[in-house]
Amino acid sequence: MVNNFMLGETAWCPGCGNFSIREALAEALDELEYKPHEVLICSGIGQAAKIPHYLKVNGFNGLHGRALPPAIGARIANTRLKVIVESGDGDSYGEGGNHFIHNIRRNPDIAHFVHNNQVYGLTKGQASPTSDPGMKTGIQVSGVVHPAFNPLLTALAMGAGFVARCFSGEKEHLKETMKKALEFSGYALVDILQPCVSFNKVNTFGWYRKRVFFPELNALDDWSQAVKLSLQWGEKIPLGIFYNKPRPTFESSQKVLTGKALIDIPFEPKELSKIQEEFI
Ligand SMILES: Cc1ncc(C[n+]2csc(CCOP(=O)(O)OP(=O)(O)O)c2C)c(N)n1
Ligand code: SF4
Predict the structure, then answer these.
(1) Lowest CB count within 10 Å: 45, 91, 182, 237, which one?
(2) Tens digits of per-residue pLDDT, 39-87?
(3) Whole-angstrom Cα distance, residue 212 to residue 210?
(4) Distance between Cα 123 and ligand 1 center (Å)
(5) Which protein residues touch ligand 2 with a CB less than 6 Å away?
(6) Which H or E run includes 213?
(7) What is the pLDDT of residue 267?
(8) 112: left (phi over 0), alpha (psi -120 to 50) or beta
(9) pLDDT above 80 for 2
(10) Could you identify the atom of ligand 1 that is nearest to the CA of residue 91?
(11) What is the rounded CA–CA span in Å between residue 190 and residue 113?
(12) Could you tell me if 73 and 249 are in contact, meaning their C-beta atoms sit under 8 angstroms apart?
């Protein structure tokens, strides 16, 4: 099958966990029969956030942590676009943590794929919000002291309708999960364990392979089961879609977005002048 989305060389280190994430997404988009012009990927800053440069899609690469606001803006303007946010754990949960939380409340139709390597990769491996306590880095020389941020538990607590964890060493599972997230109506979070082979010498491919497993799930809309899974971390790390239960989207709550896409409505400068006159 010809892949319509793979594009050129990358500047990632050989062996980086980002490679299979890029491939999985390119294959998922192909298999769902999207065309490059129908897709927008927004990102912030970082190694993961370079993704829009490395795939044939519409791309927006903005400030560190600020990927979600432009994504929501684009989605509001053009509900015909498949909007994806793709960035690192620092970008999405650290600098962009506020947007992460409030975006879940609003529930726009956006798939959010977080490359979670538990470090700031681009700036040479400082601790990130998801680094485990005790992890030593060039900056945290005596080890990380704070507890790690739990993105899945936070997403569930905020009412996210689709919450999943994948591993970049399990590409088929990642691709299938991405397809489900892309087809989900509303905000979908996929936290992807992505070894950084240059700066994270603890959470390596081998470390994950020993720990990851696919739990048997009773039902995908069992919130308390999902919460329990999201808390499991250490000797055993569950993978899979922990929760899948749609709720009304941002778009469906705004009358103006339920008919035509805004970009399809002719711009009437006269109407704007009338509104300006009212307020000036
Ligand atoms: C507001 C702001 N703070 C810090 C930086 C410096 N900076 C650039 S990339 C980066 C780390 C990126 O880490 P992460 O988002 O986890 O992505 P990764 O590179 O690991 O994929 C930092 C701290 C910046 N560009 N802007
Ligand atoms: S520094 Fe880490 S995250 Fe960045 S490209 Fe290299 S291996 Fe990947």
Answers:
(1) 237
(2) 999 999 999 999 999 999 999 999 999 999 999 999 999 999 999 999 9
(3) 6
(4) 6
(5) 12-13, 16, 18, 47, 117, 121, 196-199
(6) strand 212-213
(7) 82
(8) beta
(9) no
(10) 15
(11) 5
(12) no
Is the pLDDT at 200 greater than 90? The verdict is: yes
Nearest CA to ligand 1 atom 11: 120
121 Cβ below 6 A of ligand 1: yes
Q: Whose CA is nearest to atom 22 of ligand 1?
A: 123
Q: Which of 20, 196, 200, 202 to mutate to test the pocket of ligand 2 (most atoms within 8 A of CB)?
A: 196
The residue nearest atom 5 of ligand 1, judged by CA position, is: 64
Beta bridge partners of 191: 114, 165
- 141-167 as b/e: b if 16+ CB within 10 A: eeebeeebbbbbbbbbebebbbbbbbb
Ligand 1: does its nearest atom lie under 6 Å from the Cβ of 86? no
Write the single-letter amino acid at 215.
P
* pLDDT for the residue numbered 258: 87
Cα(174)–Cα(25) distance, rounded to whole angstroms? 8
The per-residue pLDDT for range 147-194, each reduced to its tens digit, is 999 999 999 999 999 999 999 999 999 999 999 999 999 999 999 999
Query: Given the structure tokens 């065309």, which residue do they identify?
Result: 35
Q: Which of 16, 202, 204 to mutate to test the pocket of ligand 2 (most atoms within 8 A of CB)?
A: 16
Q: Which ligand is located closest to the Cα atom of residue 12?
A: 2
Residue with tokens 């015909």: 80
Identify the residue whose tokens are 């899948």.
Answer: 244
Residue 261 has pLDDT above 80, yes or no: yes
Q: Which atom of ligand 1 is nearest to the CA of 45?
A: 9
Residue 45 Cβ < 6 Å to ligand 1: yes
Radius of gyration of the chain (CA): 19
